[in-house]
Amino acid sequence: MDNKNRFNDIKNHWAESVINEAYDLALVEGYDDGTFKPDQQCSRAEVTVLGLNIYKQLEILIDKKKVKPTIPTRTIVVDAGHGGKDRANIDPFGLGYVEADGNLKFCLALKKYLSPYFKVILTRETDIFLTWTERAMVAVNNKADMFVSIHSDAYKKNIGQGVTVFDSVARKNEALGSKIGLAIAEANNTVFRGVKERPSTFNPILDYYTVMNVAQVNNVPIIFLIERGFHTYFKDCQALLDTDMIELSAKSMANEVIAYYSKNT
Ligand SMILES: [Zn+2]
């Protein structure tokens, strides 16, 4: 339709072009008789329609701009520490925290958030026992790009708190480990103790943690063991048990991993 003929009562009105532009954007409409009545007061219903029209157009605009990150096919193996006969690590406060279960809940949430972007394999999805070597070999056999073993920490009651990320002594990924550690600590409302390494006491080029070492000697490129907090520290333990915090910390960690592979294609 020709702009000039769109409404029969706006010609030479000071807002003529603006009204036509708003019509083209599907924000405003005229009346059935072909008029716009540019100087008539708005009713509440008309303002509501205008507001909704603006909202709809914004939604369309935002949707057009959404671009999914291009991430190549990567395999991430996530290991929920302990389980099965190994259920000894419990909290000293009687809150009912069992490390084996807490680790599994976090890993299942992490899988949910990573799965849209990566091939994600859990070493266990139920309460079963696996040796350290068996866990690492899941990563090795699946040619994992990243292997993450999930734990919670323990020390004397209410002494020591926060998140620790252990990095492989041979394949260092400190920057990513730091981002992941900070993200989990923030979600759990606790401190980040930093990215650490723990070399073997027999051979410093090997990892103390068997689960990391088996992955390391078999060339998995990124290996972390993450202590998500101290179940021996009351506030950390509450966070480790809290469903919302488990979800948020898993989602926050997943976002860092997604961002990492979005940049490092
Ligand atoms: Zn553990």
What's the arrangement of secondary structure elements?
Elements: H1 3-6, H2 16-24, H3 44-65, E1 75-80, H4 99-114, E2 119-122, H5 132-141, E3 146-153, E4 163-167, H6 174-187, E5 192-196, H7 210-217, E6 222-230, H8 234-241, H9 243-263
Parallel strand pairs: 1-2, 1-3, 3-6, 4-5
Antiparallel strand pairs: 4-6
Bound molecules: zinc ion (ZN).
Helix tally equals 9
Give the C-level CATH assignment of the largest domain. Alpha Beta
CATH level-four homologous superfamily name of the largest domain: Zn-dependent exopeptidases
Structural class: alpha/beta
Choose one word for the global shape.
Answer: elongated
Largest sheet: 6 strands, mixed
**Average pLDDT figure:** 92
Give an account of the 3D structure.
- The protein has helices at residues 3-6, 16-24, 44-65, 99-114, 132-141, 174-187, 210-217, 234-241, 243-263; strands at residues 75-80, 119-122, 146-153, 163-167, 192-196, 222-230.
- The protein has 265 residues and is of the alpha/beta class.
- It has a six-stranded mixed sheet, with helices on both faces.
- The model has no long low-confidence stretch (mean pLDDT 92).
- The chain has two domains: 3-65, no CATH class; 75-263, 3-Layer(aba) Sandwich (Aminopeptidase).
- Strand 1, helix 4 and strand 2 form a beta-alpha-beta unit.
- The chain binds zinc ion.
- Zinc ion is lined by residues 81-82, 89, 99, 151.
Keywords:
Aminopeptidase; six-stranded mixed beta sheet; 2 domains; 9 helices; elongated; alpha/beta; 265 residues; binds zinc ion; 42% helix
